[in-house]
Write a structure and sequence with these properties.
Elements lengths: L3 E4 L3 H14 L2 E7 L6 H5 L2 E6 L10 H11 L3 E3 L9 H9 L3 E2 L4 H8 L1 H11 L6 E2 L6 H11 L3 E5 L9 E3 L5 H16 L4 E5 L5 E9 L5 E13 L2 E7 L6 H17 L4 E10 L6 E8 L6 H8 L3 H9 L16 E8 L1 E2 L5 E2 L2 E2 L2 E3 L6 E5 L6 E2 L6 E9 L2 H13 L2 E3 L5 H8 L2 H4 L7 H11 L7 H14 L9 H5 L5
Helix pairs in contact: 4-5, 7-8, 12-13
C-alpha cells in the first residue's frame, strides 16, 4: 500500500486527493510554486516542497523538479491529478525509473493515446466505432484535400497531437481546404510541436458523452457509465451531468462495452475516460470514438455521486497493486448529478480571466451538495494558472431536482474579490434548451454571447449579505482599495 504520496498538482484537485489520502491513512506531500506558497493545498498537506517560480513551465511542468521533490520528501508514489504532467509519458516513465509509483496508466498507454491518428487506428482494430475519416501518409495540402473530397463535405481538419480544439478547422467546401490546412498546421506546430493532420466527417450538432473506465493490473476492466459534457465553450466544459438525458439503456450498454474495448486495446490501467460524439438520441442514436483522456477528469465527482464509488480512493488502491474492489455487475446508477465549474472570469468581457485576492468566501452547504475547491479567504487568484476556482456538485433523485439544487447552491455561493461566472451559470441552468435537455456541443458557441449579456447583474441575497458582513467586520471605508464595491465596480458574482 502507498505510504506517502506526492501530489504533482495544485488547487481543488490537490485538495481532493489530500482528503482521500487522509481517509486512507496515507501521508501527503504538496508541491508549490512561489505563487502558491500560501495556497490551501500547501497548508492541508502533511509536508510541502517548493518547485520554483510562478510560471508553470518553471514549476509544475518541470518533471525533474517534481521527481526531486518526491525523493526529498521520501514519497513512494506520485499522483499527477489532471493537467500539467498528468498525460506526459516521459513523466510516467521518469517516475518508474526513480522507483516511484505513478498513480495513472503505464507510459506505453499514454504514448499509444497521445497521437489521435494512432489512437484512431487502434480503435478501428478494436471494433470501436470511429467517425468516418482519413489520415493520409502524404501530408501535403492536395492529399488532404483529396481525403476531404472522398469523405464528403463538411469536414473537420484536426491535428493528430494535442487537444482542446486547438488547430481544429471546419471546412464546408473544397475551395477552403488549402487555407484551413495551412492554419491548422501552423497552430498545431506552435502548440504541440507536431503538425501532422487528419480529416474526418463533420457531425453537425453532436452531443459530447464520455464513459468513465477503470482497469487494474489483474486484467479487470469496467466502466462506470457516462457523463454528458455538451455544455462547453470553445471545447472547454462548463456544466456536466450524469446520466446523459439522451442515452437509452441499450445505447448506454453498447457505449460502455466500446469504452472497455478501447481501454483493453491500449493496455490501460487505473482511471481513464473514453470520449464519444453522440448523434441522435434514444435507441436510434449513433456514437463515435473521439479521444481517450488518460487521467482522472475534472468532472469525476458526478460519477462518484451516481455510482457511490470514490474514484480517487480506487486510483490509490489500484496503483498499490490491489484488484478493483467492484465488478461490472455490482455497479449501477442512481439519481442524477450535475457539476458546475466556477471560474474567475468576466462573461461580460468575453470571459476575461480575473486575478486578485479572495476577500470573503462562503460555500453552499446542505443535503446533496458538494463543493470541491482549493481556495479560501486571502487566497490570491493568479494569472499564471487556469482560472477555475471550484466545482459545485449536486445530486438528487431526478434531473429537475438536481437542476433546482444547483441553482439554489450557486445563489448561496459567496465569492468576493474577483468576478466569477456564477451569474452566467445560473442563466445556463434556466435556459430553455438546458431545461429540455436538448443541448449539443456547439450550444454555447452559438448562444454563449447572448447568455452572458443577459447574466444577472445583481448580487444574490447570500452574496449581498456577505458583502454587508465583510464591510461591517472589516470596517472598510468606501474609499478603501480593498472594498469589493470599489474594486469590482459592477459586481457580477
Amino acid at each position: 500500500m502507498i505510504r506517502r504520496l506526492l501530489i504533482a498538482n495544485r488547487g481543488e484537485i490537490a485538495c481532493r486527493i489530500i482528503r482521500a489520502c487522509r481517509e486512507m491513512g496515507i501521508e501527503t506531500v504538496a508541491v508549490f510554486s512561489d505563487a502558491d506558497a500560501s495556497a490551501r493545498h500547501v497548508h492541508e498537506a502533511d509536508q510541502a516542497v517548493r518547485l520554483g517560480p510562478a510560471p508553470a513551465r518553471d514549476s509544475y511542468l518541470k518533471a525533474a523538479a517534481v521527481i526531486d521533490a518526491a525523493r526529498t520528501a521520501g514519497a513512494d508514489a506520485v499522483h499527477p491529478g489532471y493537467g500539467f504532467l498528468s498525460e506526459r509519458a516521459h513523466f510516467a516513465r521518469a517516475c518508474d525509473e526513480a522507483g516511484l509509483i505513478f498513480v495513472g496508466p503505464p507510459a506505453a498507454s499514454l504514448e499509444r493515446m497521445g497521437s489521435k491518428i494512432g489512437a484512431r487506428r487502434l480503435m478501428i482494430d478494436a471494433g470501436v466505432p470511429v467517425v468516418p475519416g482519413q489520415s493520409p501518409a502524404d501530408q501535403s495540402a492536395p492529399a488532404l484535400s483529396r481525403a476531404a473530397e472522398a469523405i464528403g463535405f463538411p469536414v473537420l481538419v484536426k491535428p493528430s497531437a494535442g487537444g482542446g480544439g486547438i488547430g481544429m478547422k471546419v471546412v464546408r467546401a473544397a475551395g477552403a481546404m488549402d487555407e484551413a490546412v495551412a492554419a491548422a498546421r501552423r497552430e498545431a506546430l506552435a502548440a504541440f510541436g507536431d503538425d501532422t493532420l487528419y480529416v474526418e466527417r463533420l457531425i453537425e450538432r453532436p452531443r459530447h458523452v464520455e464513459i468513465q473506465v477503470f482497469a487494474d493490473a489483474h486484467g479487470h476492466i469496467v466502466h462506470l457509465f457516462e457523463r454528458e459534457c455538451s455544455v462547453q465553450r470553445r471545447h472547454q466544459k462548463t456544466i456536466e451531468e450524469s446520466p446523459c438525458p439522451a442515452l437509452s439503456p441499450r445505447v448506454r450498454e453498447r457505449m460502455g462495452a466500446a469504452a472497455v474495448a478501447a481501454a483493453r486495446a491500449v493496455g490501460y490501467r487505473n482511471a481513464g475516460t473514453v470520449e464519444f460524439l453522440l448523434e441522435g438520441r434514444g435507441d436510434t442514436a449513433s456514437f463515435y470514438f473521439l479521444e481517450m483522456n488518460t487521467r482522472l477528469q475534472v468532472e469525476h465527482p458526478i460519477t462518484e455521486c451516481v455510482t457511490g464509488i470514490d474514484l480517487v480512493r480506487t486510483q490509490l488502491l489500484v496503483a498499490s497493486g490491489e484488484p478493483l474492489p467492484f465488478s461490472q455487475a455490482s455497479l449501477s446508477q442512481r439519481g442524477h448529478a450535475i457539476e458546475c465549474r466556477v471560474y474567475a472570469e468576466d462573461p461580460a468581457q468575453d470571459f476575461l480571466p480575473q486575478a486578485g485576492p479572495i476577500l470573503l468566501y462562503r460555500e453552499p452547504q446542505g443535503p446533496g451538495v458538494r463543493v470541491d475547491s482549493g481556495i479560501g479567504i486571502g487566497h490570491e487568484v493568479s494569472v499564471h494558472y487556469d482560472p477555475m476556482l471550484a466545482k459545485v456538485i449536486v445530486w438528487a433523485e431526478t434531473r429537475e431536482d438536481a437542476r433546482r439544487r444547483a441553482v439554489a447552491s450557486l445563489r448561496e455561493y459567496a465569492i468576493l474579490g474577483v468576478r466569477t461566472n456564477i451569474p452566467f451559470l445560473l442563466q445556463l441552468l434556466d435556459h430553455p434548451m438546458f431545461l429540455a435537455a436538448s443541448v449539443d456541443s456547439g450550444f454555447l458557441d452559438r448562444e454563449g454571447e447572448a447568455i452572458a449579456a443577459s447574466s444577472v447583474t445583481a448580487l444574490p441575497d447570500a452574496a449581498m449579505a456577505a458583502v454587508v458582513e465583510y464591510r461591517r467586520t472589516r470596517g472598510t471605508a468606501r474609499t478603501s482599495g480593498t472594498d469589493p464595491f470599489v474594486t469590482l465596480g459592477s459586481w457580477r458574482g
